[in-house]
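During the no-cost extension, the postdoctoral fellow (Dr. R.K.) reprocessed legacy sequence entries with the updated structure-token encoder. One reprocessed record is reproduced below for audit purposes.
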Amino acid sequence: MVKINPFKATILNPNPSPNRESRAELVCPVYDTIDAYQYEQYAATKNNVIQFTTREEGVAESEFVDYAKSSLERFFTDNILIEREKPAFYIYGVRYSLSEAIMEQIPEEDRRETYFAFGLVALVEVAKLNEHDILGHEKTFEAKTRERYHLMKACSMNFSPIVAEYNMPDHDINCIFEDYLGFRRPSLEIDERRKPILDVELQGARHLLWEVPDEDVIAKIQRLMLNKKIMILDGHHRYTAAYQLHGDQEDGGTAYTLMMLVEGGDRALLLLPWHRCVKQCRMDDLWTRIKENFAVERYDKHTENAVIYSKLNECDDEFDVRFGMYDGEEYYVLQADERRIKRLAAERGERVGLDVISLHEWLIEPTLIGNPEDIVFTSSPREAIEKVDKDAYCVAFFLKPLRMTDVEYKVQVEKKGFPQKSTRFLPKVAEGVVMWKFGKFV
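Re-encoded structure tokens follow.
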């Protein structure tokens, strides 16, 4: 049984001192989506929350944690951050649109001019992943979990909610939200009696946070969530760290963690792929392995990405495995030998995610020169192409999107996790919109 509770949120002060930056200048993307260029951009603002959420490239973990703790203390001392007076639930809304580069990756029936997702922000009681009612679908990196654990323990804070989904075919919770706020998505008509306590734009997306202190509404939502299972979409490292903190309750830990719960059937919840850029690999060996395992279709270097994605989206069953490749000279659509794919599925006891599994096991891992860290993941095919064209990377691979039902099948039926960076869910929350202080600084 998933147990959710209201809480006193920590937010950016809605009444900042004169001459202080606007709140829109103080939020930043979630830490694990920020590259070196973006870090420099956001960190240039002294009071941006990136000062305590994100480690700069090249900085040691211990140095970052110490700096984050002292920065966070300054934010509270200077009244940049404040804690709300009463426990409440929160509605987190993200209204966003997609760039052409992202739009062309998804099926036409899922394309919309504007997406507007709602999430319930609440405390969720932590339990061991995949044993009861909280499920995870992606494997984690130990070093990244360790960093989040040390950061959360030192600061006694969750800086952004973990995103998880639940199934509710009648859309009861989303209907409660729309009735409470007085409008129907994707429209946005703010009622003066229900004004958001935060409304900022970040990277073209509008992030809104409404407070729901009404005890009757809270109780109704808690009843609706009583027998639900939830599946983590974004934040596996933070959840794993939270579970470790759960075991440290006598030493500054907590039994709860901050989550944003979204309905899995929400049309504004999108599932996109991560593409791979490989810095160095043995190209002759790579081509030998491609010819052994795949049929190859070649396309001119000037072919539009949409053409490649149209070809990838032609897949008609789970054993029709295909992905794209670019080597600086041509594009290729690689379609796996069906007999070999069926054998791989039988050996692993898996039928979902065979494209990313075969890509790594058959092509990338056996031919990689260097470390796995030399593989760069990007959501933009155009960015991947640019990395190859600049000769910084020798080859890029493009994957097609999974479906939400695929992810649920992987977790609930196969009871396995995807390789790291297999799924990318939209919308993304922002760091600094809603936070939770679960203890005193230690």
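The chain is about 30% helix and 25% strand. The chain has a mean pLDDT of 91. The remaining legacy entries will be reprocessed before the final report is submitted.
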